[in-house]
Structure formats: C-alpha cells, structure tokens
Amino acid sequence: MIQLVGVNRSPFTRRVAITLRVYGIPYQQQPLSGFGNRAEVRGSNALGRIPALILDDGEALVDSAAIIDHLDEMHGRDRALIPSAGADRRTVLRIAALMMGACDKGLAAAYERNHHPPEKVHQPWIDDCLAQMRHALSAVEAMPAASPNYLLFGRLTHADIACFVAERLARGLQIDTESELPRLRALTRKLEDEPAFRSTEP
Ligand SMILES: N[C@@H](CCC(=O)N[C@@H](CS)C(=O)NCC(=O)O)C(=O)O
Questions:
Q1: Measured on CA atoms in the order 102, 32, 126, 173, is the torsion positive or negative?
Q2: Nearest CA to ligand 1 atom 1
Q3: CATH code for the domain in which residue 129 is found
Q4: Which atom of ligand 1 is nearest to the CA of 48?
Q5: Which of 54, 90, 95, 136 has the smallest C-beta neighbourhood within 10 Å, fewest atoms?
Q6: Domain of 52, in residue numbers
Q7: Residues with Cβ within 6 A of ligand 1?
Q8: For the segment 103-142, what is each residue's pLDDT rounded down to a tens digit?
Q9: Which of 49, 68, 114 gets mutated to test ligand 1 (max ligand atoms within 8 A of its CB)?
Q10: What order of strands is seen across the sheet that includes strand 52-54?
Q11: Does the predicted model carry a pTM greater than 0.85?
C-alpha cells in the first residue's frame, strides 16, 4: 500500500493527506517528523524533509507539489482537484503556490524562533517572514468571491486545500486570522467539517 511519510502537523504533509482522502486512495502513514526523525526520513527523501510518498513499487516521490501532481494523474486529470488546462488551471496553481509559499515563510519564522539559541534569534527576520506570509494570505482574502462555499468554480480545488493548511499555520503563529482574514477563516471553518479535513487533523 502507498506510504505517506510525515506528520500532519506539517502543512505540506497535511495537504497531501487531505488530497489522498478526497481521492479515496488507500494509504498508510509513517508519522515521522523532518527534525525529530531525520535519519529515517532520509530513507525516502535524501533532503530529510517531509512529506515523501512511497508508491507500491518502492518509488519515492518528494516535495508536496510533485506528489500532488502524481495523485492527480492517478485519480485522472479530468476528475482532479484542478482543471486540466488553461486559465482556470493557472489560477489554482497560482493560489496554491502563494499559499504553500506562505507556509514556507511561516516555517522560516518558526525555525528562527525554535532552532536558534535565544540570543541569536533575529526578530526583524521573523517579522519580515510573517509580513510576507500575511501579504500572500491577504491577496487571496481580497480575491472576488466566486462561490459561497469554495474559493473557485463552486467546487473543492487544490486552492482551497492550500488555503486551509496555510490559514491553520498562520493561526498557530499567532496571526489573528479571525480579524485579519475573515473570509479565509470562514472557508477553513467550513472545510474543517468535511471528512477529508476532519480525519487528517493532527
Ligand atoms: N517544498 C517542500 C517543503 C517541505 C517542508 O518544508 N517540510 C518541513 C516540514 S513542514 C520539513 O521537513 N522540514 C525539515 C527541514 O527542512 O529540515 C514541500 O512542498 O514538500
């Protein structure tokens, strides 16, 4: 069976886990952390990062975007959580890239705090990372509403999942999404009730 390497605390891993659930692809999860289980993680990703996805034949995929691309192919491009071509596809890719980039910036801020001795933590760098994260989230918040329940096209797409994991990380980093990003917060509240999201809660 397909193995997902990583803990759902990681927004990148959770994004993959949610997609696996939405597509109904059976998998087992190896709840390893990029920092705490580095040696084991290297067995499937030489970079020592989560997530990795190990396919039935042992092939290991790394990086959440590449993994999602493969899951779309497995599920069928015509049924995937992203249009197969054109401007609509580019819109989903743009939002997902902004949101996963926001996660990168949020994690960079967290790493500065958690992986440096207190006297070496550079607060202006943390502030800069969080400002970039906020800007990306605010850009999506300001997009005209296309449908009441989802960001685009009246259906769940990778854009919603990416927003979900980014908003959750932002909240964990003490960004007050309730007041700063009310639309995104309302979206994630709604998604929290859907089985693929609920069942992957860390
Ligand atoms: N671009 C990668 C980012 C993955 C990533 O940053 N994973 C974090 C956990 S959320 C990690 O393993 N960090 C440990 C490290 O960078 O050494 C992806 O999309 O999969």
A1: positive
A2: 63
A3: 1.20.1050.10
A4: 17
A5: 90
A6: 2-79
A7: 10, 12, 34-35, 48-51, 63-65, 100, 107
A8: 999 999 999 999 999 999 999 999 999 999 999 999 999 9
A9: 49
A10: 27-30, 2-5, 52-54, 60-62
A11: yes
